[in-house]
Amino acid sequence: MSQDTFANHIAGAWIAGGDATPNINPSDLNDTIGHYTQASAAQTAEAIEAAAAAFPKWRTTSPLVRFEALDRIGSEILARVDELGDMLAREEGKTLPEATAEAHRAGHLFKYFAAEAYRATGDAYQSLREGVTLDVRRDPIGVVGVITPWNFPLAIPAWKIAPALAYGNTVVFKPAELVPGSAWMLSDIIARAGLPEGVFNLVMGAGAEVGETIVNHPEVSGITFTGSTPVGRRIGAALFARGAKMQLEMGGKNPLIVLEDADLDLAVHCAIQGSFYSTGQRCTASSRLIVTDEIHDAFVDRLCAAMKTLSVGDARAPDTQIGPVASAAQLAINQQYAARAMADGATLAAGGGKISSNTPGHYFAPALFTEVQADAAVARDEIFGPIAAVLRVPDYEAALTAANDSDFGLSAGIVSQDQARIEHFMQHAEVGMIQVNLPTAGMDFHAPFTGRKGSSYGAPEKGSYCREFFTAARVVHAARGGR
């Protein structure tokens, strides 16, 4: 195995797969980061069986053991945020400041869940019967399959793997094929943290082989998945059929409402940050900008002017604000939706289209469409790129109706100074997360991450709420005394 070939981690050892696929820098297609071995179905099953064998002992370890292991992982991540951030930016296209911030967050997620290992996870109740005690205990569920997307290749694995381990589960981790470098570096740190053999396993490879094996293996007690809604629903159906637990975070088509009393500068800031930063490749991106008539034209003019100042380029260049699209496939999707939006009668107000740079890469100019109809594909489908649609509405009531007119229900924002309408929006927006005078993207890691409708299914992620997925309740009634 050559020095630039990276293996899977199974049962405490680094194991080469059959094939090794190249990891290409989307900022510079001439730059091959390394080759990452692909696990077979048999190797994936071996990893699952190793995790199952390790579970009985790991589940009984003391909170101190779990705290120390997770805290070591968090400390090493924080000590290497620049190195990890550079890898993330290089392989996924997120700008270096954003990538470094993500690495920093991943470190703190491990430290947060290290502390969670100390917290009592049970509850004591007073029984309704005399002479009876009543306790609710929490048990780890067993082997947890962790299946993650390519857009946050450090933070999302961190907020799944860390709680799984903290609550006493064992892990089989399948990262997205597009971003194996960040996953491998994170896994290398985890592998050196002193965990017993088989507690943590990394299997890289295609969903059709590695993912399907994890989903269908009887020893996998639950899967935490982040990805598209169609894939999530297929996984959910398979897990339901065999009685396994599921935590599914899926798509979003998030609205940002801008009312006539909004601070225009703030509204533009929220739209730029939420719609276009991270190249729009966030499930919480504000891809629908719902603007009332009175402020519509001024908002669009100011937003277009701000978009002209955005610097699109190499993710690791110091002056870049918007990096490349992550892959050729995603670039093609962006181009197809831009063409379809214009065919549907929308106006391209700013940006749009593939652009050239000093290096060959997947560069796309952030696009803003106006005069968009509510039923247009650009207003309904999750594109996962730097494309925003402006929907003109007459008033707040119409804005709320438009915001809720979606198959998704992840995040929503409102920019307004009217506290009564803000309070009404917080109560009636059909989403799991709400941002007031803030971009729709950006969530605190110690609070739950959750959506409604087609965006989420199962217990929330992050924070203490996620214990509902990673543990199972056991209710114990016991008679006092006895012989």
Topology:
Blueprint: E1 5-6, E2 8-10, E3 13-15, E4 20-25, E5 28-37, H1 41-58, H2 63-79, H3 81-92, H4 96-116, E6 123-126, E7 132-140, E8 143-147, H5 155-166, E9 170-174, H6 180-191, E10 200-202, H7 207-216, E11 220-226, H8 229-242, E12 245-249, E13 255-258, H9 264-276, E14 288-292, H10 293-308, H11 328-343, E15 347-350, E16 367-370, H12 377-380, E17 387-393, H13 396-404, E18 408-409, E19 411-415, H14 419-428, E20 433-436, E21 452-453, E22 456-457, H15 467-470, E23 471-479
Parallel strand pairs: 1-5, 8-9, 8-11, 9-10, 11-12, 13-14, 13-19, 14-17, 16-17, 19-20
Antiparallel strand pairs: 2-3, 4-5, 6-7, 7-23, 12-22, 15-16, 18-21
Question: Which labels suit this protein?
Answer:
Aldehyde Dehydrogenase, Chain A, domain 1; 483 residues; globular; Aldehyde Dehydrogenase, Chain A, domain 2; 6-stranded mixed β-sheet; alpha/beta; 7-stranded mixed β-sheet
Structure report:
The protein is of the alpha/beta class and about 475 residues long. It has two domains: about 5-250 and about 455-475, 3-Layer(aba) Sandwich (Aldehyde Dehydrogenase, Chain A, domain 1), CATH 3.40.605; about 255-435, Aldehyde Dehydrogenase, Chain A, domain 2 (3-Layer(aba) Sandwich), CATH 3.40.309.10. Helices cover about 40% and strands about 25% of the residues. The protein has 15 helices and 23 strands. The protein has helices at about 40-60, 65-80, 80-90, 95-115, 155-165, 180-190, 205-215, 230-240, 265-275, 295-310, 330-345, 375-380, 395-405, 420-430, 465-470, and strands at about 5, 10, 15, 20-25, 30-35, 125, 130-140, 145, 170-175, 200, 220-225, 245-250, 255-260, 290, 345-350, 365-370, 385-395, 410, 410-415, 435, 450-455, 455, 470-480. A seven-stranded mixed beta sheet has the order 15-16-17-14-13-19-20, sandwiched between helices. The chain has a six-stranded mixed beta sheet with strand order 10-9-8-11-12-22, with helices on both faces. It has a three-stranded mixed beta sheet with strand order 1-5-4. A hairpin with a 2-residue loop joins strand 4 and strand 5 (about 30-35). Helix 1 packs parallel to helix 7 and helix 4 packs parallel to helix 5. The chain is globular and about 75 Å long. The model has no long low-confidence stretch (mean pLDDT about 95).
